[in-house]
Amino acid sequence: MLIKVFKEWSDQNNGRIEILAPTGKMTAMNKFKPSASEDKIKELSEYFSTPLPPDYTSFLQLCNGASLFEDPEYGGESFLYSAQDVIHYNEASDTKIVVANILDDRILIDLERWSSGDEKYLLLCESLNPVEYASRFYSNFETWLDRFLISQGEKFWYWKTERSFVE
Q1: How would you classify residue 49: left for phi > 0, otherwise alpha for psi between -120 and 50, otherwise beta?
Q2: What's the rounded mean pLDDT across residues 1-27?
Q3: Which DSSP string corresponds to 54-98?
Q4: Are 79 and 32 spatial neighbours (Cβ–Cβ below 8 Å)?
Q5: What are phi and psi of 90, to 5 degrees?
Q6: CA-closest candidate to residue 66, choices 85, 50, 47
Q7: Does domain 2-152 have CATH number 3.40.50.620?
Q8: Which pLDDT score is estimated for 76?
Q9: What is the pLDDT of residues 28-83, one digit of tens each?
Q10: How large a percentage of the chain has pLDDT more than 90?
Q11: Rounded to 5, what percent of the chain is helix, strand, coil?
Q12: Residue 60 contacts residue 36 (beta carbons within 8 Å)
């Protein structure tokens, strides 16, 4: 997982890293919570009555939640929830569970998709829309998180491209 390397790099500098942003070079802060215990991960799975995807549980084993790419002065709005937060923000009966909030966009794990063997189980719920309006990400948690880190905290899912073939 790229998050492990990213966390090590960030931890070397007390959470501070230099990134290239649309406004130029800037310092960003990352805050990682200590890893979740096996009991906490088990409690989370039992709360939803289903095993969670292994890439997501690997994230929790590395860090039980994080705040990424914060402005050192003003803070940030990119939160990957801890196991406790996931329980707090979701009902036990939910099949689409919120695991992150990125500048008002919610990232969800579709437990039904995951349980049926679909490896691309992640969903995006934009802004304040109800979860029923969540759309497919065509990704798993690890791939989404890798892309989020590589894009330096930008909402890469809104980047539009047009492809045409030159003859």
Answers
A1: left
A2: 92
A3: HHHHHHHHH-S-EEEEEBTTTB--EEEPPHHHHHHHS-TT-SEEE
A4: no
A5: -130, 150
A6: 85
A7: no
A8: 87
A9: 999 999 999 999 999 999 999 999 999 999 999 999 999 999 998 888 899 999 99
A10: 82
A11: 35, 25, 40
A12: yes
